[in-house]
Design brief:
Elements: H1 2-43, E1 45-46, E2 52-53, H2 55-66, H3 68-83, H4 96-100, H5 104-124, H6 128-157, H7 163-170, H8 175-200
Helix pairs in contact: 1-2, 1-3, 2-3, 2-5, 2-8, 3-5, 5-6, 6-7, 6-8
Length: 203
């Protein structure tokens, strides 16, 4: 009987280990897919009066669909790839020098956006209204960090600049496009969540 119990225990432990390994593989695959999606969306430039990319949309969609942990990891991997020179940023650019420029803070800000969304997800859950709140707050955090970084670099290199001026350059022109991106990310995540629930939640 003891040997039988030992065999059953070993089988159960082996099954748990296989399940955990499978989940790790799935996690890496999902993170890789959404890292690539963020890069692709970064390359897509919408030709308006002030061109903008779909980077923010992809970041929001990654966290909304994958959940806070995997979504944040996808964003972190994306930023790290760009930092080491892989051309994943807008205009097929990459390198630490891109991040160190005055607008680089908005790229780092994506990580803080994802972290805030992860935190709010743990508090509010993943209902549509909760994700709308988390995306909005995440966007504001990205704006705040990116604007502070822009002002620091600009004043170091060029001289004094006012907050209202920087907001007029870097934030105000993008309020409407970013609001549209939030709406699209919410709609698409809601449409895909149920069909993909068995895949994403089971991973």
């Amino acid at each position: 009987m003891e040997k039988l119990k030992d065999i059953q225990t070993a089988d159960a432990a082996g099954a748990v280990a296989r399940t955990q390994n499978r989940r790790r593989v799935y996690d890496m695959a999902y993170i890789g897919i959404f890292t690539a999606l963020i890069a692709i969306c970064s390359w897509i430039s919408i030709p308006t009066a002030i061109p903008f990319t779909l980077q923010t949309f992809a970041v929001f969609l990654a966290v909304a669909l994958l959940g806070g942990r995997r979504g944040t990891l996808a964003v972190v991997v994306y930023v790290l790839l760009g930092a080491v020179g892989v051309p994943v940023f807008g205009g097929f650019t990459g390198g630490i020098d891109i991040i160190l420029r005055n607008a680089g803070g908005y790229i780092i800000g994506f990580i803080f956006s994802a972290l805030v969304m992860w935190l709010l997800e743990s508090i509010l859950g993943r209902k549509t209204w909760a994700q709308a709140v988390s995306m909005t707050v995440g966007l504001l955090v990205c704006y705040a960090f990116g604007t502070a970084w822009f002002m620091f670099v600009y004043m170091r290199d060029m001289g004094a600049v006012g907050l209202s001026t920087v907001l007029g350059w870097c934030v105000l022109p993008f309020l409407v496009p970013d609001a549209v991106k939030i709406a699209l990310a919410l709609l698409l995540s809601r449409a895909l969540r149920r069909p993909l629930a068995g895949i994403l939640d089971g991973a």
